[in-house]
Amino acid sequence: MAEVALPGLRLADDLFFGMHYDITGRMRLHARLTGLGLAAALLGELMLAERIAVHKVQGETRLQAGAPRQGEGAGAGHPEHGRDMVTRAVLDHIVAEPSHPFRTWLQFIARTAHADIATRMTAAGLLRPQRMRLSSRYLPVDANQAAWPVGRLNLAVRRREPLNTQDRVLLGLLVATGVGRHVLWEHNAAYLAQSAAGLTAPLQELLAQTEAAVGDAVISRR
Question: What was the pLDDT predicted at 73?
């Protein structure tokens, strides 16, 4: 069966929409879990753009920066979107500190991932800040656009249609973070396993590391 093209935004933008209620802007998960998921999505953007790779050093999983694609600047987070300051900052950190393990990068990036991605999406006209008495939330400018990332995945799962690579990662991150329990209409284990199996080894490692980091975060809160 031919691969179905499901258009989307950048990976982290899609996940941001999926991890928030589109009416209230409230997070579906605890802030720490949301941050880890969004951090993984930023790393996923760099992996999809072939800007970082995964390698093993003495049994430890690490990230390694790769050379820019022809015509891309040092900060390109996705080949379709050109220079992006959020992914550029992540890439610069990895270049400067290549000895940190994968899990450390997830935890580090997670500290500011929510604010960084919300700022990027606001600048792109996708979100608008809503000031509250003690905090702020971000509401989608277009509710239909906000619902589309999860909506297209649900349709694909229901119809058992293949996904493109970015949506395979998006689906995997929804499941790995636990937000999939809230937004997916059905949980077909065979379909999910097949979808993940179609990813490259680095992207599979991204999902595994995210699931493990989320599991550690949940245990530490008990």
Answer: 43
* Two tokens, residue 7: 């258009």
Please choose, from the candidates 133, 131, 180, the residue with its C-alpha nearest in 3D space to the C-alpha of residue 157: 180
Query: What residues in the chain have per-residue pLDDT under 50?
Result: 1-7, 71-82
Question: What is the full DSSP assignment across 141-174?
Answer: S-HHHHHHHHHHHHHHHHHT----HHHHHHHHHH
Please state, in angstroms and rounded to a whole number, the distance separating the CA atoms of residues 104 and 193.
Answer: 26
Backbone angles phi, psi at 81, to 5 degrees: -120, 0
Give pLDDT, residue 68: 57
pLDDT the model gives residue 75: 36
The pair of three-digit structure tokens given for residue 98, joined into one six-digit string: 């290549």
Q: What is the reported pLDDT for 191?
A: 95
Whole-angstrom distance, CA of residue 214 vs CA of residue 21: 20
Model pLDDT, residue 2 = 34
Give the pair of three-digit tokens for residue 175.
């499941």
